[in-house]
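Input.
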Amino acid sequence: MNIADYKGVWVFAEQRDGELQKVSLELLAKGKEMADKLGVELTALLLGNGVDNIAKELMAYGADKVLQADNELLGHYTTDGYTKVICDLVNEYKPEVLFIGATFVGRDLGPRVAARLNTGLTADCTALDVDDETKNLLMTRPAFGGNLMATIECAEHRPQMATVRPGVFAKLAKDENKALNIVKVNVELKAEDVRTKVVSVEKLAKEVEDITEAKVLVAGGRGVQNKETFKLLQELAQVMGGTVAASRAAVENDWLDKDYQVGQTGKTVRPNIYIACGISGAIQHLAGMQDSDIIIAINKDATAPIMKVADYAIVGDLNKVIPEMIAQFKAMNN
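Output.
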């Protein structure tokens, strides 16, 4: 392998049933930053069937170019189909960096592609940068249960690959006037290349609020103490026009569903206001919410780690503080 032959930053643009996943837009924003530091082109890699509109959307959100692989066998995600096409394109075009969202699709696809390309993969990154001297990608992720952050380089193999969870980076503003640069590539993919067949797609009836999109989050932890008290948090979230969330401890106690968990083993959020109620602030939780615009912490323990990162720290009993906050917001709304 001649590393010098590999140039450019690629972002895998994940779509499901013709709907682009927002993590792809977030990765385009970070990918653009990395591409500018390297002085190379940012390419969105789009696989699907009849996805012309998504290609245009990717251009509007920062891509310098879109490589579009359109084939009926790529209409629904399959490990075999997507891996073959991506590896064929990587071997042909030789990008130096490939970013993939750490969704259930990305977590299946990333390792398979990396193994086949004989390169490394850093999973669940929370920060990305470029070394000024070597120009290698610096990929930072939690290690040892989130107790420290490890920065990893893939110095001897290409492409350098990383997966990133949704919500870690902010997407760029949309520019619909940007000139289109969409390259449709020929796909060498036969039915026998795909060992699994998608017979039907059934969507779960369960509807949950997406906490990664919320502007206001009221999150509860172990200090909430029971499911009944969570109703107070839900009421506060309602009067503030927000959504409830939870720490891992609250979810494990069955006070709130896993879909609402914030942290290293939950979701990464960046709301305008994050109210942490009875949350101590372990590093695993902070990793999922530390980029919130304003952090308000309510805790009896003035020395809790969450109080050090909070913009406003309220030392007190949440059973007294939250009802007062609800009353104040109701008064404002009236």
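The two ends are 68 Å apart (CA to CA).
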